[in-house]
Every structure is written in structure tokens, then in C-alpha cells.
Amino acid sequence: MDTGRLEQQLRFLVEVDKMKSVYRRTILIDKTRRESDAEHSWHFALMAMLLLEYAPENVSCERVMRMALVHDLVEVYAGDTFAYDEQGYLDKEQREQEAADRLFTLLPADQSAELRMLWEEFDRAETPDAQFAAAIDRLQPFLNNYLTQGHTWALGDVKSEQVYKRMDMIRIGMPEVWPFVDRMIQESIEKGYLQK
Question: Within 10 Å of residue 95's Cβ, how many Cβ atoms?
Fold first, then answer.
């Protein structure tokens, strides 16, 4: 057994345990507290598995679940950027690239390259796997917002046009689900959860 390899893997696993302490703006559906990055990633992976039937043909559930598990790992260093924070997005890419350089190099070279490749593929959202993954990544907090009467939207003074723009990935990555999301956005406007 290569003990050096195992030590690198364990060091990485200990480091990414910090995801449990990176809190997002999204609150839990029961409204008791904010959700952590680790909880979001778990829920994303579970949703990908259960909603695979709405993915385009030939999407790999395994690859999407792997993306779910790695897509926010860099936030242990870069922090979470609220989806509707225009100011935060100005340096988000740089912060996350620097975090990726620091984090993934903790792993053995082969695993470092594999996880980095999955993270970058997810971020670009150009492949069917990544588009489905990105759609799920957006659907998960969207449902929380809808079911908490727009809690996080209200905190960020979010408008419906911003939500439509962000949710457009669902139209691309899960076209059958789009009418359901569109209806929920319209209901959110009608109920006052979301500003027109």
C-alpha cells in the first residue's frame, strides 16, 4: 500500500470537511437555519439520481452525481457567492480558480486531475451531463425559495427577471421540467414571494 497516497487522500478529505461549515443564503425548508454547502451537495446528488428520467438522452447519472459532490468544494476557500449577488460575481471566477489550485493539489495527481476536470466541466455547463447537473444545482435552492415563501429572494431584493435568467439552465438541461418551474415562478409573483 502506498501510504503517501493515502495520507494525501485523507488530508484532502479532512480539508473538505470544512464544507459543513460553509453556509449558503438558502434556508432549509423548515426555516430553522441556513443550509450548508455539504447539505446542498448531498441534496443535489440525490435529486440528480431521482430526477434522471427528465435528463436528456445519454446523460450519465454517475458523472452528474460526481459533479454534485465536487461542484462546490472550492468554496471551502472561496466562500459561497449568493446566486444574485452581482458584486460578488465580479471576482468569483478568480477566487474559485485560486481555491481550486490550492485544494485539488492536495490529492494525488491522478485524482487531482479527475476532480478538477469534473469541476471545470460543471462550471462551463457545455456538455449534456454538465447542463443537467447545472439544472439540478439551480432547481434545488429554487424549490427551497418557493417553499419558504421567497425567503432568500426577499433578502436579496431579487426580481423575477433575475430568477428567470438563472433558471434558464433548467429549460436547457431539463426541458420537461421547465413548465413546472415557470408556473412556480408565476405563482411566486402572484403570491408576492417574488418581485415582478
Answer: 17
Q: CB neighbours (10 Å) of residue 147?
A: 16
CB 77 within 8 A of CB 94: no
One-letter amino acid at 10 equals L
Q: Which amino acid is at 158?
A: V
Cα–Cα dist 38/42, whole Å: 6
Reduce the DSSP state of residue 26 to 3 states and report it.
Answer: strand
Half-sphere exposure of 117 (CA within 13 A, CB side): 8
Which three three-digit cell numbers place residue 187?
405563482
Closest CA to 70 of 92, 108, 37, 47: 37
CA 103/CA 95 separation, integer angstroms: 12
What's the rounded mean pLDDT across residues 138-156?
A: 96
pTM over 0.85: yes
Which of 186, 181, 144 shows the shortest CA–CA distance to 54?
181
DSSP H helical segments within 148-177, as ranges?
A: 151-155, 160-173
Interhelix angle 160-173/128-147, nearest 10 degrees: 140
Contact 166, 84 (CB under 8 A): yes
Q: Which amino acid is at 134?
A: A
**Domains within the chain, CATH numbers bracketed:** 3-190 (1.10.3210.10)
Segment 33-74, tens digit of pLDDT: 999 999 999 999 999 999 999 999 999 999 999 999 999 999
Contact 55, 132 (CB under 8 A): yes
